[in-house]
Amino acid sequence: MLHAVGLFAVLFGTWILLSGHFTPFLLIAGAVCAALTVAITLRMDLLDQQRDFVGPVWRLPLYWLWLAGQIILWSLIVARQVLAPRLDIDPVLQRLPCSQRSDLAKVMYANSITLTPGTVSTDVGDGEIEVHALTRAAMEDLKSGDMDRRVSATEAKRTKAAAADAP
Amino acid sequence: MILDILSWISIAIGAFFVLVGGIGIWRMPDLFSRMHPAGIIDTAGAGFLLLGLLLQSGDWLVSVKLVLIFVFLLFTSPVATHALAHAALLDGLKPWTRRRDKARDKDGEP
Amino acid sequence: MMFLAAAGALIAAMVLALARAFAGPTVYDRILAVNHIGTQTVLLIAVMGFITGRPDFLDISLLYALINFVATIAVLRYVKRGRSTADKES
Amino acid sequence: MDAEARQGARQGRRAIDLYLNIILLVFVAATGIAAVWLRNLLASAMVLGIYSLLMASLWVVLDAVDVAFTEAAVGAGVTTVLMLLAIALTGRREKRARSRPWAPLAVSLATAGLLVYATLGMPAFGSADAPAQLHVAPYYLRHGEAETGVPNVVTSVLASYRGFDTLGEVTVIFTAGIGVLVLLGSASRRRRNSATPAKGDSA
Hints:
The complex is a heterotetramer.
Chain A: H1 2-19, H2 24-43, H3 59-83, E1 92-97, H4 103-115, E2 119-124, E3 128-133, H5 136-143, H6 146-153, H7 160-165
Antiparallel strand pairs in A: 1-3, 2-3
Chain C: H1 2-23, H2 27-51, H3 57-81, H4 85-89
Chain D: H1 3-37, H2 41-61, H3 65-89, H4 102-119, H5 131-134, H6 137-148, H7 153-161, H8 163-193
Helix pairs in contact in D: 1-2, 2-3, 6-7, 7-8
């Protein structure tokens, strides 16, 4: 139920932000559209019922800031490699361990890896993640486990519900 | 005035990263290595460009839309890239490495 | 003027990605190129909205950002399974 | 900003529009030719997706924002998926044509020539005294929002002043969509029911 209400809030908020008009007719139309979408979503059983993603939310902005810094840093490094007169790349494909338990945190870790230029996640499994890196240096940086720890820190503590969900 | 200068700088950086991404897409030897420079466009390129536009917007609705575009890009681009890499690997595409380049065996669809 | 420089960079990057889409060599290279031409179009339209002083272009940018993603995923699902998404879902 | 500066800005903008139009049209032509040229139909479908994106950008430059919306949603989104479904039902590679199709080429070139010739008779783009700007358009612009309560003029025209027209269009599109779904559904069901395993499309 919480998920449905949350989805409705997000949809209706998006409607308001995108329309920018606040006449009663348009607001009601937006609410009806959002409610209809939520109803269809519920009927199609598309809502994710996993409970364990409410972690220490206040850590997320900190993580995003750190990630933004990493992205800029690695963008510059990859840019230098792209513009170098001789291509100095040495791509590697490797499986790395990851410590996230919930699916959401795993997705977050994999997406963070992909967002950082120089590394792309290619497969996510149980407790490990396959990564393609443009250079060995990029792979070593990931192997240090810094990002892995930071993502895990935003994860919720293991609760009973989460333990039941986890395989 | 300071805002203007900041936004110009930001747009210039964004344009530079977009250009680098384009060059990388053309220059890199195989699909997997092309994804890395391509990712620069979606993150640093789009980020700095939209930040520059944001500083010029002056209207909160416009600013919100710019932020939304960036957020959509941040959520969709890694998923698309990951799906692409995953699909290509499942299809049997082998990543280019230094050794394989010397062996000169070619892969990919004829 | 800076908007123009940004538009120029975007168009140049689009040319390079177009070349990649035509040259291939694999289907995945083309999908990558299409995806990034989509992103560049999103940015180009946003910049164009500012050049022409009509920020409502941003709505189109938003729509493209989403459609681009949906199209990419649909294509990948088709290629990955070797058959259509309709096979699975209908 | 004084009038002279505004005039200059407008001229500059027109020049930018012109160059953007030229660049985008060159891109469109290149993608169109490439889509026909490529033998791999999957690649052709991809290139056609790019074509739609470029056309949509062109609509934006021409200030036809609503058409651009449709082009992006239908051209780049739905059409690509439909093409892929069609390819999935047939095959990935185009057969090499044996005969040289000179007659169809001549017909298409003649049609294209006629169309280009017809554009010479059209009023200049955006000219104020074109027939399209003289009759109902000023009325819609002036009274549209008050009469329909819809802030977007194009929406008010489509959904209110030409409501029945749009209803007809929507009916046609809905029927077409159902038709496509039925066709695809029956095709995939037949394939699943047939004893031979569906062979991959790797050609």
